[in-house]
C-alpha cells in the first residue's frame, strides 16, 4: 500500500462522531513516527494492533488547531504504544490523571501539557511526576496550568520533590502566573537542567531569582521574559482563598533573608492578592515593602553575586528593571554569559552600571531610553552584535561629537540604531567601531549622511532607508568608494528625499557612478525644492534632464555673482573713502607707538598745552606774535612744528604724537587753511582724537582777509585772490572746521588798527586764549565733548 511509507500523519479536527481511535488503519502504517490527532473521550484507547509500530514515537493531542476531549488519563491509555518518546496534550480539560500512566511509556523523553483546564493545576501536574522518577525524560513543559481566579502561584519544595530525581535538561513553566520561587524549590531542581523557561509569569524579585539558580551548574539558557500581573476577570471566594495553599502568597522567613542579602530594604510578609487589587491595571508590582517610604530609585547591589557558571543566554524581554539591576551587580565568580535580551523593559537611562564584559550579543531595543553614558560599554568588552532600535537616543547621539559612546565597541560587527529619532550624527560617531560590518540607521530623521567611515574598513551594508536624507557628505562618498574597491558594499537609500536640484546634481551623479551597490536604484525618491518627493525613475535620464536645466541656471548665477562682487567692491571702497581719515588715524596711532618715543599720557596729563596747526601764509604770525604772547609772556607749553619737530623725522607720526599729547589743538584759520596738506592732516587727526577720546580737542583762531594783508605781502594775498576770486571765508574753512565754529570753540583775531581795537582789546584777546588753553600743571579734568 502506498501509505505504508508514511511517517507523519496529521488528522486533527476529524473526530466528530468517533468513539474509538482508528487503530486498525493506523496499524497498517508500519513507518509511522508521528501522529497528531484529536483526543477522544474515555473509554477510547489505543488498541494492541499498534504494538508492532516500533517507529511510532511522537503523539500529540489538540495541537495544530485540533481538539482534545480527554477528561481522564487512565493508567492503560498508552500501554499499547510503549515506544513513545514525545507526548503533547494541549487544551485537554483534564479532571483525572493517573500517575502510573508514565510507567507505560518508559522511553518518554519529552512531555508537554498546556491548558489542561481549571481542575488540573500546576501543583497537581508536578505531583503526578512521581511516575517519572529516574526516567529518561529530558524536556518538560507545563504551560497555562493555573486557575484563572487565583491571585498568584508560589512554588515550594514539595512541588519539586519529584523533579529532583529526573535528569531534565529543559524545564518550561511559562504562563503559570508564578510570582516567586522559594529557595527550597530552587534547591530541588535537577542539576542537569540546561534550559529553564519561565516566560509570562509575574516575578518581581529579580536578584533572588538569579542568585537562587546559581547551583545549576549545567544551565545554559534562562528565559524570564514577559513578567506581568494580569487583571483577573473572576475571583474565588474568601473561604477558598483561605483554605487553599496555592493562594497563600507569603514569603518564608528564610526567603526574606535571602532577598535582604541583595536589597537594601526590609522584606515583609506579603499577600499577592491584596497587592494585585491595590495595583489593579498595572503591569508590575513590587514584592517588597521598605520600612520607610522613599522615592523610587535605582538599587545598587552591594553584595557579590553568583551566576550559574555555564549560563550563556538570558532572555528578559518585558521584565521591567531586570536589565538595570543586572548591569549593577558585581559577579564574584567566573561566568559564561554571552547573550542577553532586555528589550521592551522600560530602561529609560543607561549609565547605572555597565554591560558585563563577557556579553557578545545584546538586545536593548524598545526600551524608551533617551540617555546613555559612554562608560555603559566598558573597556575590553566582547560585544559583537548590538541592537538599540526603537529608543529615543537621538539627542544623546547628536551630542556625541567625538564618538565617545561607541568608542570601546571595537569588536562589534552588527549595530542596529533604527527608529531612535536621530536627527544628526557627528562625522566621528562610528570612530570606535573598527570591525563594523552592518549598521541599520533606518526610520530616523537624518537630513544628511555625514558619517566618516575611514575607520570602518569592514563595512558591508548600510541601511539608511526611511530618513530625510537630502545630502551625502563628500568625505562619506570618498570613504565608501575606497572601501567598495576592496569588497562589496551595499547602501539602502529608499524612502529618502534625494535632491533633484542643481545643487544636488553631484549626489545623483555619484549614485550613478559609484562602486557602492545602491539598492533599488530605480525606486529611489527625490524632491525639487519645496515640492513633494517623487519617484526618481531612470537615474541616467534624471541626471541628463538636470544637467540641461542647470546650464542656464549656472550662467545666471555667474552673472549675478559678478554683479554682486562689483557692488560689494564699490560699497567697500566707498566706505573706505568715507572713513579714510578715521582709518588713517588708527593706522598712524599704531605707527606712532612704534616710531615715536612718547610715553602714553593719561587724559589729564599732557605734554603740551596746545599744538599749533597753521598754513604757510601765517608762518610769521605764529613764530612771532602768537609765540611771544602765549609761550613767553603767559608761560604756555606750545608745540609748534617749525620749532619742536626734529628735522628729518616722519611728519605723519610727529603731528599725530603732538595732537594726542596736547591738551588742545589750536588751528589758525585762514581761508587757505584746508589747502595746506599738513594743516589739513593736523585738523583731521584732532577730529579723530575728539571722536575716540570723547573730549574737546580743537580750538579755532579766526583770522580775516585783512589780517592776511597786514600780516603778509600784498602780492601773496593778491595771488591767492586771483586763484579763487569767489572765495568765501566760511566755505573755505570746510565742513569740519565750520562745525567746530558753530559749537562756539573759536575766537576772532582783532585786526590791528581796526575800528575799536586797542591794546587793551588785544591783551584781552590773548588772555581769553590763555584761559581757554589752561596750563597742564593745573588741569584736573579736561572738558568732554557733548554726546549730542
UniProtKB/TrEMBL annotation:
Q: Name one GO biological process term.
A: signal transduction
Show the GO cellular component annotation of the record: plasma membrane
The compartments listed are: Membrane
Indicate yes or no for the key word Membrane. Answer: yes
Domain TIR spans what residues?
A: 606-746
**Pfam families, per this entry?**
LRR_8, TIR
Q: How is it placed in the membrane, per its record?
A: Single-pass membrane protein
Principal place of residence? membrane
What residue intervals traverse the membrane? 555-577
- Per its UniProt entry, which superkingdom is the organism in? Eukaryota
Q: Which UniProt keywords apply?
A: Membrane, Signal, Transmembrane, Transmembrane helix
UniProt keyword Magnesium, yes or no: no
Annotated GO molecular function terms are: signaling receptor activity
Q: Which family does it belong to?
A: Belongs to the Toll-like receptor family.
Entry's PANTHER family? PROTEIN TOLL-RELATED, TOLL-LIKE RECEPTOR
Q: What is this protein called?
A: PiggyBac transposable element-derived protein 4-like
| Native source organism of the sequence | Plakobranchus ocellatus
| Lineage of the organism | Eukaryota, Metazoa, Spiralia, Lophotrochozoa, Mollusca
Amino acid at each position: 500500500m502506498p501509505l505504508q511509507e508514511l511517517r507523519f500523519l496529521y488528522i486533527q479536527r476529524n473526530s466528530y462522531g468517533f468513539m474509538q481511535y482508528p487503530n486498525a488503519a493506523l496499524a497498517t502504517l508500519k513507518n509511522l513516527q508521528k501522529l497528531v490527532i484529536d483526543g477522544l473521550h474515555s473509554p477510547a484507547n489505543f488498541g494492541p494492533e499498534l504494538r508492532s509500530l516500533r517507529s511510532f514515537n511522537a503523539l500529540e493531542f489538540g495541537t495544530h488547531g485540533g481538539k482534545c476531549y480527554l477528561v481522564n488519563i487512565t493508567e492503560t491509555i498508552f500501554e499499547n504504544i510503549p515506544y513513545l518518546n514525545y507526548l503533547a496534550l494541549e487544551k485537554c480539560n483534564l479532571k483525572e490523571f493517573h500517575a502510573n500512566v508514565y510507567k507505560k511509556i518508559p522511553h518518554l523523553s519529552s512531555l508537554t501539557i498546556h491548558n489542561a483546564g481549571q481542575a488540573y493545576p500546576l501543583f497537581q501536574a508536578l505531583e503526578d511526576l512521581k511516575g517519572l522518577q529516574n526516567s529518561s525524560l529530558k524536556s518538560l513543559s507545563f504551560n497555562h496550568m493555573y486557575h484563572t481566579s487565583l491571585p498568584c502561584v508560589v512554588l515550594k519544595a514539595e512541588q519539586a520533590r519529584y523533579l529532583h530525581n529526573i535528569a531534565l535538561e529543559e524545564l518550561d513553566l511559562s504562563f503559570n502566573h508564578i510570582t516567586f520561587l522559594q529557595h527550597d524549590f530552587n534547591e530541588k531542581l535537577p542539576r542537569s537542567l540546561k534550559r529553564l523557561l519561565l516566560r509570562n509569569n509575574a516575578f518581581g524579585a529579580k536578584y533572588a531569582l538569579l542568585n537562587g539558580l546559581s547551583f545549576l551548574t549545567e544551565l545554559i539558557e534562562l528565559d524570564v521574559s514577559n513578567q506581568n500581573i494580569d487583571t483577573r476577570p473572576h475571583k474565588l471566594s474568601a473561604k477558598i482563598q483561605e483554605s487553599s495553599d496555592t493562594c497563600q502568597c507569603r514569603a518564608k522567613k528564610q526567603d526574606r533573608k535571602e532577598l535582604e542579602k541583595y536589597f537594601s530594604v526590609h522584606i515583609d510578609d506579603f499577600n499577592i492578592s491584596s497587592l494585585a487589587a491595590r495595583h489593579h491595571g498595572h503591569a508590575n508590582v513590587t514584592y517588597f515593602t521598605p520600612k520607610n517610604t522613599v522615592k523610587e530609585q535605582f538599587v545598587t547591589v552591594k553584595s557579590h553575586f553568583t551566576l550559574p557558571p555555564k549560563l550563556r543566554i538570558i532572555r528578559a524581554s518585558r521584565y521591567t528593571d531586570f536589565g538595570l539591576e543586572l548591569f549593577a551587580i558585581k559577579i564574584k565568580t567566573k561566568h559564561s554569559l554571552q547573550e542577553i535580551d532586555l528589550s521592551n523593559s522600560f530602561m529609560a537611562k543607561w549609565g547605572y552600571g555597565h554591560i558585563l564584559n563577557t556579553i557578545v550579543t545584546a538586545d536593548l531595543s524598545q526600551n524608551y531610553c533617551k540617555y546613555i553614558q559612554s562608560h555603559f560599554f566598558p573597556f575590553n568588552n566582547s560585544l559583537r552584535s548590538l541592537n538599540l532600535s526603537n529608543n529615543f537616543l537621538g539627542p544623546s547621539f547628536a551630542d556625541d561629537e567625538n564618538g565617545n559612546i561607541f568608542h570601546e565597541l571595537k569588536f562589534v560587527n552588527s549595530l542596529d540604531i533604527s527608529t531612535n529619532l536621530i536627527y544628526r550624527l557627528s562625522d566621528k560617531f562610528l570612530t570606535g567601531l573598527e570591525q563594523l560590518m552592518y549598521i541599520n540607521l533606518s526610520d530616523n530623521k537624518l537630513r544628511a549622511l555625514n558619517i566618516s567611515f575611514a575607520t570602518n574598513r569592514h563595512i558591508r551594508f548600510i541601511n539608511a532607508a526611511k530618513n530625510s536624507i537630502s545630502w551625502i557628505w563628500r568625505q562619506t562618498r570618498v570613504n565608501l568608494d575606497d572601501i567598495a574597491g576592496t569588497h562589496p558594499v551595499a547602501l539602502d537609500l529608499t524612502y529618502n528625499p534625494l535632491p533633484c536640484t542643481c545643487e544636488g546634481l553631484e549626489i545623483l551623479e555619484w549614485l550613478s557612478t559609484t562602486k557602492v551597490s545602491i539598492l533599488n536604484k530605480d525606486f529611489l525618491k527625490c524632491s525639487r525644492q519645496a515640492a513633494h518627493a517623487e519617484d526618481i525613475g531612470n537615474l541616467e535620464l534624471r541626471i541628463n534632464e538636470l544637467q540641461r536645466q542647470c546650464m542656464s541656471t549656472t550662467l545666471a548665477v555667474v552673472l549675478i555673482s559678478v554683479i554682486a562682487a562689483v557692488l560689494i567692491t564699490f560699497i567697500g571702497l566707498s566706505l573706505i573713502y568715507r572713513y579714510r581719515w578715521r582709518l588713517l588715524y588708527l593706522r598712524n596711532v599704531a605707527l606712532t607707538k612704534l616710531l615715536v618715543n612718547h610715553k602714553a599720557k593719561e587724559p589729564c596729563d599732557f605734554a603740551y598745552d596746545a599744538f599749533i596747526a597753521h598754513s604757510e601764509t601765517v608762518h610769521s604770525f605764529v613764530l612771532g606774535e602768537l609765540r611771544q604772547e602765549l609761550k613767553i609772556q603767559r608761560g604756555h607749553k606750545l608745540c609748534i612744528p617749525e620749532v619742536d619737530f626734529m628735522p628729518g623725522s616722519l611728519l605723519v607720526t610727529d603731528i599725530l604724537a603732538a595732537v594726542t599729547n596736547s591738551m588742545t589743538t589750536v588751528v589758525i584759520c585762514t581761508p587757505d587753511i584746508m589747502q595746506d596738506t599738513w594743516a589739513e592732516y593736523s585738523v583731521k587727526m584732532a577730529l579723530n582724537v575728539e571722536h575716540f577720546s570723547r573730549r574737546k580737542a580743537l580750538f579755532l583762531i579766526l583770522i580775516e582777509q585783512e589780517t592776511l594783508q597786514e600780516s603778509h605781502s600784498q602780492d601773496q594775498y593778491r595771488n591767492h585772490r586771483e586763484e579763487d576770486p569767489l572765495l568765501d571765508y566760511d566755505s573755505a574753512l570746510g565742513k569740519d572746521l565750520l562745525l567746530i565754529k558753530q559749537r562756539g570753540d573759536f575766537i576772532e583775531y582783532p585786526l590791528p588798527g581796526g575800528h575799536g581795537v586797542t591794546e587793551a582789546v588785544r591783551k584781552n584777546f590773548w588772555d581769553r586764549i590763555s584761559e581757554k588753553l589752561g596750563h597742564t600743571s593745573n588741569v584736573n579734568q579736561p572738558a568732554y565733548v557733548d554726546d549730542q
